[in-house]
Amino acid sequence: MKHRCLLILPVVAILAASCNTGKKAGTIMTVNGPVPAKNTGIWLTHEHILVDFIGADSISPSRYDRVAVINKALPFLRHAKEMGCGTFVDCTPAYLGRDPVLLKILSDSTGLNILSNTGYYGAVDNKYIPASAFTMTAEDLSRIWISEWEKGIENTGIKPGFIKIAVNRDSLSEFHAKLVRAAALTHLNTGLTIASHTGPSLPAFQELEILKNNGVSPEAFIWVHAHSEKDLSKLVQAAEMGAWVSLDKLNDDNVEELLSIMKYMKEKGFINKILISHDAGWYDPTKVNGGDFRGYDTMFEKLIPAMKENGFTGEEIEQVFVINPSEAYSIKVRKL
């Protein structure tokens, strides 16, 4: 792997030289506490270390050995660090394998800033929603999430760095609309950014409307899996409103596809609203030795060099991988 890393070192050097400049003041919340946003370096904005798909009614930390997960994930995280990553966003939500203690151990072992999250994941027809949530109001849900911000997650003292919710790919159900309202209330009380697993534009714009009706600016919203929307004008429309457009399924086979979306967004003047990541990893307790673990290297080894070859400047690359995520995840109440 290391000989391939040499290909991206010049780009990383460009970014490293400017990682502390040109950004708005702000703070992010890592599993080791608050960190100035200006010191966060290159970001991987949507990744996973552990995911357990068993469902909310059966999920338990007893289903995996934390040491085994660490042994599996650590080489991949160290490699990401070697390639230039400074901050890693773990998007595994509650009832899907979220483990803030695991993340802290890995952060301490690698020197990476790692973010965990609060919120509930409603996609896949609510398989990962606890039964108690269905009878709760949006206010009830927000109180749970705000408490995790104020007191820490599950008695660990470790605070979330953002709100993670998820909705189905079609028109929002009443329950999923409630999740969005709860996220809005949580944002207004914490300043945590809302990252919503969404996909197509229909639910994305319904979510943005709910946030607007609750006094939350689109600048507080990350449209996760926005690359699923084939009408790229919708991505521009969301960016015009202020939302963050996340292209987060990067892999070796779709570099050109995501690059073309980035070119389009650049053409339209919205390179400052793009987030990029792999949605990669992860240890799966249902599989032998955690199953296959996809690394976090395509961005460094293929996408960034391809951006350079296609006319993206060092400043534009820094905008996408350093400035945009540090602003998107900065803790700040964003009201209309």
Uncertain segments: 1-10, 16-23
Shape: globular
Q: What would you report as the Rg, rounded to the nearest angstrom?
A: 18 Å
CATH level-four homologous superfamily name: Metal-dependent hydrolases
Compute the number of strand runs.
11
CATH topology: TIM Barrel
Approximate helicity band: 40-55%
Tell me the strand order in the biggest sheet. 6-7-8-9-10-11
Q: How many discrete structural domains? A: 1
Order of helices and strands: HHEEEHEHEEHEHEHEHEHEHH
Strand content: 5-15%
Q: Can you offer a commentary on this structure?
A:
The chain is an alpha/beta fold and about 325 residues long. The longest helix has 18 residues, at about 65-85. The strands form 3 sheets. A 6-stranded parallel beta sheet has the order 6-7-8-9-10-11. Helices cover about 40% and strands about 15% of the residues. The chain has helices at about 1-5, 10-20, 65-85, 100-110, 140-150, 175-190, 200-215, 230-240, 255-265, 300-310, 315-330, and strands at about 25-30, 35, 40-45, 85-90, 115, 115-120, 160-165, 195, 220-225, 245, 275. The protein is globular and about 50 Å long. Helix 3 (about 65-85) crosses helix 4. It starts with a helix and ends in an 8-residue tail after the last helix. Strand 1 (about 25-30) and strand 2 (about 35) form a beta hairpin. Residues about 1-10 and about 15-25 have low confidence and may be disordered. It has 11 helices and 11 strands. It has one domain (about 1-330): Metal-dependent hydrolases (TIM Barrel, Alpha-Beta Barrel), CATH 3.20.20.140.
